[in-house]
Amino acid sequence: MTDYKEEQRNEIEALESIYSNELKIVSDDPEYSFTVDIKTESLKHDPDDYMAVSLKFTYVPTYPDEAPIMEIAESENLSDQDMEELVEFLQSKTEENLGMVMVYTLVSEASEWLNKKLVTSSSEKKEAEERRIREAEEEERNRFDGVRVTVESFMSWKAKFDQEVAELKKLQAKDEVVSKKLTGRELFEKDRSLVDSDLQFLQDEGEVKVDESLFQELDDLELEEEDEEDIPS
Prior knowledge:
It comes from Caerostris darwini. InterPro entries: GIR2-like, RWD_dom, UBQ-conjugating_enzyme/RWD, ZC3H15/TMA46_C. This is RWD domain-containing protein 1. Residues 10-117 form the RWD domain. The protein is rod-shaped. With 233 residues, it is of the alpha+beta class. Helices cover 61% and strands 12% of the residues. The mean pLDDT is 80. The protein has a 4-stranded antiparallel beta sheet.
């Protein structure tokens, strides 16, 4: 008869020796429950690019003839899909190792899977970034297609621009002259006294009066001048 408890204790002792810093016993009653931390090596080009998981194993009474309960207690830099794929992968490995203590094998398989996944994920990220840059550059080039500037095209544009500026200045000068030259109606609206003075002049012209004394004074002035000429020097 198989002594499952003995096999389980022996495996725990071996695991504690191998994973002295990574293994933590959660419980030993009624069955052993423990975690093993796994972390990939960081990639050379990005020290922060790594993956890590904490696998939790719980023995069942008939382990190793029956697979242990496995779950991911904690993870770093893994998506939900990554964790599902890892659990499915490990479950397939338990089927291959039934009847033998298998935690060391499962941890080793998980570590290798994570390293491969990290390399694949890093490559996919790099390709996605390169594709994004190419698309951005292509979009930027497309914005300027058909409007590339040459010396000839610039000189042609400048001549047209100068002509438009000259025409605009002419229009502005014309507007200034027109604004300064007021029409009769504008003069009327601007200064009503001009009309009043014209009307007054016309009224006065119809009643012209002559002051005869002015003519008498002129005659006297002429006589005095003649007398002065007759006086001998």
